[in-house]
Hints:
Elements: E1 2-9, H1 13-25, E2 31-35, H2 64-68, E3 71-75, E4 78-82, E5 87-90, E6 95-103, E7 107-109, E8 122-124, H3 129-139, E9 144-148, H4 152-163, E10 167-171, H5 184-196, E11 200-202, E12 207-211, E13 218-221, E14 226-228, E15 231-234, E16 238-240, H6 243-247, E17 271-273, E18 280-281, E19 288-289, H7 294-307, E20 321-326, E21 329-335, H8 338-343, E22 348-356, E23 368-376, E24 382-390, H9 396-405, H10 410-414, H11 432-444
Parallel strand pairs: 1-2, 1-6, 2-3, 6-17, 8-15, 9-10, 9-15, 10-11
Antiparallel strand pairs: 4-5, 5-6, 7-16, 12-13, 13-14, 18-19, 20-21, 21-24, 22-23, 23-24
Helix pairs in contact: 1-7
Amino acid sequence: MKEADVVTIGGSIGGRVAAITARRHYKDAKIILIKNAEKVLVPCPIPYIFGTLKDPEKNLFSDAPFSEDNIDLVVDEATLIDRKKKTISTLEGDFIKYRKLILATGSMPIVPKLPGINLKNVFFAKKDVDYLNKLSKALDGVEDVVVIGGGFIGVEFSDQFRKRGLNVTIIEMLPHCLQLVFDEDFCIMAEDKIKELGIDIMTNSKVKAIIGEKAVEGVELEGGEKIKADIVFLGIGVIPNILLAEKAGIKIGETRAIWVDEYGRTSDEDIFAIGDCAEKKSFFTKKPSALRLASIATHEARIAGANLFELKRKNEGAIGTFATVIGDFALGMSGLSERMAKDAGFDVVVGEASGPDKHPPAMPDTKQIRMRLIFEKTSGKILGGQFCGGSSSGEIANILAALIQKRMVVDDIVTFQMGTHPVLTPSPGVYPIVNAAEDATVKLKQPQ
């Protein structure tokens, strides 16, 4: 039987960061990380395997940091946790004893109960190298791909499928693609860019069945329309992988993820949970949140990994920071959109600004940035922001996240001290974040 002070189950980004964080805080601890596959994919770039990278092998985590940090790797599948004995059973028949355990078991794609879902050439966004190699090979020699789901997964996979020269149709049941994140006008701008790439979009549409004898031949919509397809790809979200926790009798939360407290502890104080398998709370309302992002997983990993033997860090809730790119058009958001804020009961004021992302505007490859900031009317506190523009604007989402996390009010942002450069940023005189905040000050009618 192997023994360790800390065992982490899960080899993706959350588990990795948790184990490395534990090493930084507990220098003498014996740490084991269990991963169920030799090769582990970096999660966010998975869509880009199919058009930009062209090979799953180019999107793998390196195991070098583990040897550098004296973390032992076990390539096996954890099958059972015995909380009384503090042991983990594995598929290969081994037992590993722990003092503290971190669950980073991730999530699984949602598989809807659709007729034809088990036909050949129906695929999902599985984090599995062999599976994605099968998808890549299946794309060779076909013409038509239907993507079910117009969220980030569906849009990014569609972009990459189109780069392979395939005819791509996105089917989205909501009125707009990306509508769960962005306000309507931003969704429309994104859809215009998607269409410019030659991708067809069908919104307000629901798939009734996937058609075919043994392999996919098309999809049928609830209205009766049929669309030809050689491959159907479903990107409609994920569900937490809580199987191990459930079998161990660990408390499951309202969102069917593992319940955790503000320190990352589960109902068993010696077991922590992070990432997609763990329940989140909203930074803004403190209510359970269904946000599942790799960036949130690393945030939680750095909290749980530090708290194993001494409570050092608290989780104040998930902000939710998103970004994507369609062609050379980037858009992103952090926190609450105007719609989300109003739905959550906030009385809001919106500040807006736009301007070139370089200065002067005559600089080569200059693009326009459009910025929208959401403030609570009573306090002037920033609740969220969204933007769109050229790919150089990608880090704006992270700036917005920092402003939100520090609960800045509108005057803090107006007097925000930025650094600028003609090739890299907008002019300091028309910096979009600052100008959008200045726009909000007028609407907030603050006393002079």
